[in-house]
């Protein structure tokens, strides 16, 4: 079964981005960064979500992110499905922090239960078929609205959402051009999906990150 080993974000300043993700979310091996000046404008077509156990944990992580330099896109609020908010990292990546719980059951912590990479796609059905053909197994599917793939032992889950719906959920306009500024590292041969999201082999991705870091010294 194909699964995600890591996610690499293209950022203008790799050292600054590394500091942010460590201070804000305590992430290290799951999220990698590399220096890139690839042009992009507007919505990059994806978001990353952190799922936690209770509202206090949402507030703790969002508070840490804002203190580290993030900006608010959607303040944390209650909804029918739970509690959550959306921030933009200094490098421009959109992060949602959410829980399905509506009440706290213990002291606040910054413990993350799961990380989900949500890709905004033009055609849910076509993208679902493409990923199944490339070795991913469907865990949840809600027609042409949302698809979640089985993650196995992967540190990052993959899900598909309609691009406009994903942008609305993130609190941004759906239009965007240029690079997605993300590379998905997996255990399969490199490929690019119908919406232009690139996958690299885990080993190749690690080498690319190392080369980028060394060239930026």
TrEMBL record:
**Alphabetically ordered keywords of this record:** Lyase
Q: Where are the transmembrane segments?
A: none
**Superkingdom of the organism of origin:** Bacteria
> What are this entry's molecular-function GO terms?
lyase activity
Q: Does the keyword tRNA-binding apply?
A: no
Q: What is the lineage of its organism?
A: Bacteria, Bacillati, Actinomycetota, Actinomycetes, Micromonosporales
Name assigned to this protein: Predicted lactoylglutathione lyase
Q: Where is the Glyoxalase-like domain?
A: 6-94
* InterPro entries noted in UniProt: Glyas_Bleomycin-R_OHBP_Dase (IPR029068), Glyoxalase_6 (IPR041581)
Which species does the entry assign this protein to? Answer: Asanoa ishikariensis
């Amino acid at each position: 079964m194909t699964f995600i080993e890591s996610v690499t974000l293209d950022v203008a300043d790799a050292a600054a981005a590394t500091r942010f993700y460590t201070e804000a979310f305590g992430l290290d091996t799951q999220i990698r960064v590399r220096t890139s000046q690839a042009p992009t404008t507007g919505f990059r077509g994806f978001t990353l979500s952190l799922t936690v156990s209770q509202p206090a944990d949402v507030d703790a992580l969002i508070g840490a992110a804002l203190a580290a330099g993030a900006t608010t896109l959607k303040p944390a609020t209650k909804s029918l499905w739970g509690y959550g908010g959306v921030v933009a990292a200094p490098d421009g990546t959109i992060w949602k922090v959410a829980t399905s719980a509506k009440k706290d059951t213990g002291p606040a912590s910054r413990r993350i239960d799961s990380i989900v990479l949500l890709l905004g796609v033009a055609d849910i059905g076509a993208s679902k078929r493409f990923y199944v053909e490339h070795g991913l197994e469907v865990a949840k599917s809600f027609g042409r609205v949302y698809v979640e793939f089985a993650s196995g032992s992967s540190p990052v889950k993959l899900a598909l959402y309609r691009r406009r719906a994903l942008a609305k959920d993130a609190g941004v306009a759906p239009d965007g051009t240029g690079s997605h500024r993300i590379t998905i590292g997996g255990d399969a041969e490199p490929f690019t999906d119908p919406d232009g999201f690139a996958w690299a082999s885990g080993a190749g991705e690690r080498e690319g990150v190392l080369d980028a870091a060394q060239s930026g010294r």
